[in-house]
Specification:
Layout (H helix, E strand, L loop, with lengths): L1 H11 L4 E7 L5 E7 L4 E7 L2 H4 L4 H12 L11 E5 L2 E7 L4 E2 H8 L4 H20 L12 E4 L2 E4 L4 H9 L1 H6 L12 H4 L8 H16 L9 H10 L14 H10 L11 H12 L4 H4 L7 H20 L6 E7 L3 E2 L7 H13 L6 E2 L2 H7 L6 H11 L1 E11 L4 E10 L4 E11 L3 H16 L18 H15 L3 H14 L4 H15 L4 H12 L6 H16 L3 H4 L2 H19 L4 H18 L3 H14 L5 H13 L2 H13 L5 H13 L7 H9 L2 H11 L8 H16 L3 H17 L3 H7 L4 H9 L5 H11 L14 H6 L3 H16 L9 H19 L3 H10 L2 H4 L4 H13 L3 H8 L14 H16 L3 H14 L8 H14 L6
Parallel strand pairs: 9-11, 9-12, 10-12
Antiparallel strand pairs: 1-2, 2-3, 3-5, 4-5, 6-7, 7-8, 12-13, 13-14
Length: 972
């Protein structure tokens, strides 16, 4: 081993420092090495002498270049390859995780869900590689790594490089087969020289068989007998070993293991798509025959769609803007340069934007609206569609072994006159220089007719071409809502250039889309991007600035406290400025809508305004899928189920993938009167991934339909959480939304029986009579103290004590908060000072109220700072509004009622106080003579509380009486 280590270190030279040996597989020994130049660790695999003997190292290096060009989120890339003497090696990144073989050794076989996820990732990697002419030829669990629940294929292209470098015949003559007997396709085992990608499909089928059966197709045989079995024996049916498999999955795997390649799935893409259909339940409602009574509504939708299409087609095209420029996708025929088809759009658009008065059309819009080839006709059509008077188009071709030739035209789309013809040549390794040179030449041509600023060098703020290429690959996935792939490429770009601001920012966006705005990784990426925000084009600088502000808005509220309000206002202000500068950019309108949806409460921005921003984004680019996700929920809240179904259908039609599409397909079924709560819909819900259930529940929680759909969903959600619970926290996460939903719909007693563990909800239930006074008193007094720090929230009981004119416990809470401010008995988070300060002041307001001093109470309530109440003061806000109304200040009350309070789920949006808020809105708006607004408030109450507990019936009766006075429908 020492001789090999010394020989390998000599072959590696100073570029790598060997550290330790990990072991190896059938085709290699594996070491860990450090790369001093980049300060990173890499895996070094050394081919055994029997494979490397007689193979020229330089030839092997050349043959691995194609494999090294594979850049896919589920492929571990080759970094370098080479050797000296009989030592051949290649290097790859270190992947955190374990091999699939290790997992099988521990678990024997996988669940259907986990197996499908692994197989889908591998099939996607194979589809990508096969499209580029690379066949793996050794797919097996040992060559599949599991990292963060994703599968990555390793050793891609090594077998092919070996066969090309030495020749298949040479390898066969030495008795060495490239592949592993347990997974080898019959034609590969037979030495067929025409082995193609279908051999990988067979190996994937064999791997799938083992994942699900716990054993390979032919187990316990010597290698030569195993090869013979693959050549001659039928594979035992998979269902004999695993009876719980979906029949379509078992059939797909057995078909992949057919001896005849022509009877297998013919492409890995076909396998991937079949697995996708298994992972995302099909929309049966879309394919099954519908009852005849639904034919008329469907016909109405068709007519409506036709009318919309006619209106859209008849709209005048936007007028040409002399300062707007669009960069069209370049014609690229060479597969090795395919990245630059859209890549030049991204790079050149960012470089030209902000040069003098010039503003570029968003690359997202360009890619969606471009059709045809790189010619003047297509360019003029793009100009008319986007309003850009100037359009740049052209082509990129290889020129020799290592060079490229770019030709471009700068076109006046209004007249069809060429403003400039550009020809550039350079090495293919310097595409960054080509892009910069092109930008300079375009501006030079345009500067003949207008004053322009100098073009910026390195418009994406990266000097690393590999990092730039990885980023541009990620952009193409980001544009298509394929979040995990976008994250993988952005992370790759970051690893290659840690100062690449846009890669950090766009990784944050993708991670936020995939895992939520408050995901720690997304927050870290946002902050890092903000620290690097210099030298960017104006549009990108605004995006990075807004994203870095979002890190504070969505971050740990216990750390930043009331400063969140200021950050939120700055974030929304930045995005408002962005859409003012770039009014036709769908991504920016989406970002504004998303910011308003999550943080509008901090800046006085309503959910209606959030919806308008999403609608604007969708109108600009109906294929930009992120704009639909929250719009579906807002449509349900503001326009009803029919509108929500239309948004959901458009979202799925736009090609959305992933967990959001599964939850949206469920929402479609739930909102369809023909399938809501059917057995198939229940099964859909019960088998959907839990994250999809969470998403679906958040979509319908505050929909006040008479059928109480949210209660049904929350109940099944709770049952699944209980069934799969691994901790008390899991059980609580099932109980919490169920209890909130029951209480929100007026079922106070059922909510208490379900388990109301949230102090804020318990206080509301008690205030409305859902808990006996004795039980409420005992519970509330137990909260006053420091046993659970701030978690007991004794301030939640202040409205109950004030309603009962019980001043002593209110004084006790004030003293508790004041003492905590002066000398806290235990370590508290930074926000505690603001919380306790607010509670001290709110206690005084409730004390005045309990003493009957409504004038003093109102003054104290009006003085309470919203920036310190966080999620503490939903009832405080309502009390303030009611006091204003009681003193005849209806206009002031209406202004405060215009924005529904609450900043998180589940909170005000799904709690009883929300219904009381709408009742007060109805009262105030009716007195002001605002009939429509008053009807909306009263109608909300009757819809939310269709069958409430007896203690709530007086509120419903009041709402129905109000609707009767105003001529509204009193039916639930």
């Amino acid at each position: 081993m020492s001789d090999l280590r010394e020989s390998l270190q000599a072959a590696l030279g100073p570029a790598y420092e060997l550290q330790e040996e990990l072991g190896g597989g059938g085709m290699s020994r594996v070491f860990i090495a450090r790369e001093p130049a980049l300060g990173r660790r890499v895996v070094v695999k050394v081919l055994p002498p029997e494979l490397s003997a007689g193979i020229n190292a330089e030839r092997f290096h050349r043959e691995t270049q194609l494999a090294a060009s594979l850049q896919h989120p589920h492929i571990v890339p080759l970094l370098t390859a080479g050797g000296a003497g009989d030592v051949l090696f290649y290097t790859m990144p270190v992947i955190e995780g374990e091999s699939l073989r290790s997992r099988l050794a521990r678990e024997r076989r996988l669940s259907v869900r986990d197996a499908v996820r692994v197989l889908r990732d591998v099939a996607g990697a194979l589809a990508y590689a096969h499209a580029r002419g690379v066949v793996h030829r050794d797919i097996k669990p040992d060559n599949i790594l599991i990292s963060d629940h994703h599968a990555l294929v390793t050793d891609f292209g090594v077998a092919k490089a070996l066969s090309h470098a030495a020749g298949d015949a040479t390898l066969t003559a030495t008795g060495i087969a490239l592949g592993t007997p347990a997974y080898m396709a019959p034609e590969q085992a037979a030495g067929d020289p025409s082995v193609d990608a279908r051999a990988d499909i067979y190996a994937l089928g064999a791997t799938a068989y083992e994942l699900l059966a716990g054993r390979p197709p032919f187990a316990g045989l010597a290698p030569h007998r195993m090869v013979a079995a693959h050549l001659t024996e039928a594979v035992p049916p998979l269902l004999e070993h695993r009876q719980d498999l979906p029949p379509r999955l078992a059939e797909l795997i057995m078909r992949s293991l057919d001896k005849d390649p022509a009877r297998r799935p013919q492409t890995a893409a076909e396998v991937r798509d079949a697995l996708d259909n298994l992972a995302t339940p099909t929309q049966e409602a879309a394919v099954r025959p519908r009852p005849r009574r639904l034919l008329l509504p469907v016909a109405g939708l068709v007519v409506a769609a036709f009318i919309v299409a006619v209106v859209l087609r008849s709209r005048p095209e936007p007028p040409f803007d002399a300062d707007r420029i669009a960069v069209a996708p370049f014609d690229v025929l060479d597969p090795e340069l395919a990245l630059w088809h859209e890549g030049l759009v991204d790079v050149l658009s960012r470089s030209l934007d902000g040069a003098g008065p010039m503003r570029t059309v968003s690359p997202t819009i360009v890619v969606r609206r471009w059709s045809g080839r790189g010619d003047a006709v297509s360019a003029r059509a793009l100009g008319r569609a986007t309003g850009a008077r100037t359009v740049v188009f052209g082509g990129l071709v290889g020129a020799g072994a290592d060079s490229v030739r770019l030709s471009a035209t700068v076109l006046d789309a209004a007249t069809g006159v060429s403003l400039g013809e550009i020809e550039l040549r350079d090495r293919s390794a310097r595409m960054d220089r080509v892009a910069d040179s092109l930008a300079v030449r375009v501006l030079r041509d345009l500067s003949r007719t207008r004053a322009l600023g100098l073009v910026r060098g390195a418009p994406l703020a990266s000097t690393s071409l590999p990092a730039l290429k990885a980023f541009l690959e990620g952009e193409q996935f980001l544009r298509r809502s394929q979040w995990d792939s976008a994250i993988a490429y952005d992370q790759q770009a970051i690893a290659l250039d840690s100062g690449f601001a846009l890669a950090w920012s766009h990784a944050a966006m993708a991670d936020g889309w995939a895992r939520g705005a408050s995901d720690p990784l997304s927050l870290m990426y946002k902050l890092r991007a903000g620290s690097l925000n210099h030298g960017l084009a104006p549009r990108e600088s605004l995006i990075v600035q807004a994203e870095s502000l979002a890190a504070s808005v969505y971050g740990n509220g216990r750390q930043i406290g009331g400063r969140r309000w200021g950050y939120a206002r700055r974030m929304l202000g930045t995005l408002s400025e962005a859409v003012r500068r770039y009014p036709t950019d769908p991504e920016l309108w989406y970002m504004l809508g998303d910011a308003a949806f999550h943080a509008g409460i901090y800046a006085g921005v309503t959910r209606a305004e959030s919806f308008q921003a999403f609608d604007r984004s969708i109108a600009l680019d109906s294929a930009f899928t992120p704009s639909y996700v929250h719009a579906i929920q807002l449509a349900l809240e503001q326009r009803g189920p029919d509108a929500a179904r239309r948004y959901a259908a458009a979202y799925l039609k736009a090609g959305a993938k992933g967990i959001d599409s599964a939850s949206t397909a469920f929402i479609q079924r739930l909102l369809d009167p023909g399938s809501a709560r059917s057995a198939s819909t229940a099964q859909f819900l019960d088998t959907m991934p839990m994250l999809g259930v969470h998403l679906a529940l958040s979509q319908v929680l505050n929909w006040p339909d008479s059928a109480e759909t949210a209660v049904w969903v929350a109940s099944r959600h709770r049952d699944r959480m209980f069934r799969d619970a691994k901790s008390a926290t899991d059980s609580e996460n099932g109980t919490r939304p169920f209890a909130f939903t029951l209480a929100y719909r007026g079922h106070l007693e059922r909510a208490v029986q379900a388990g109301v563990h949230d102090p804020l909800l318990f206080a509301q239930v008690a205030l409305l009579g859902g808990v006996t006074p004795e039980s409420a008193e005992t519970t509330f007094r137990s909260w006053i103290g420091w046993k659970n720090g701030l978690e007991s929230r004794p301030w939640a009981a202040l409205p109950w004590w004030a309603a009962r004119r019980d001043t002593a416990p209110i004084v006790a809470v004030e003293r508790w908060a004041a003492n905590g401010l002066r000398q806290p008995p235990l370590p508290l988070p930074p926000v505690a000072k603001e919380v306790l300060g607010y509670v001290t002041r709110s206690s005084r307001a409730y004390l005045a109220l309990a003493r009957g001093d409504t004038t003093g109470a109102l003054a104290l309530f009006l003085a309470l700072p919203d920036t310190a109440c966080f999620e503490l003061c939903d009832l405080d806000r309502l009390e303030r509004v009611e006091l204003l109304a009681a003193r005849g200040r209806d206009s002031d009350a209406a202004a405060r009622l215009a924005t529904t309070p609450g900043v998180s789920w589940p909170g005000i949006a799904t709690a009883p106080v929300r219904v009381l808020w709408e009742l007060e809105r109805g009262r105030v708006e009716e007195r002001l003579g605002h009939r429509d607004a008053a009807r909306a408030g009263y109608a909300f109450v009757t819809a939310a509380w269709t069958d409430p507990d007896a203690t709530l019936q007086p509120y419903v009766a009041e709402a129905k009486a109000g609707l009767a006075r105003l001529g509204g429908d009193t039916r639930p």
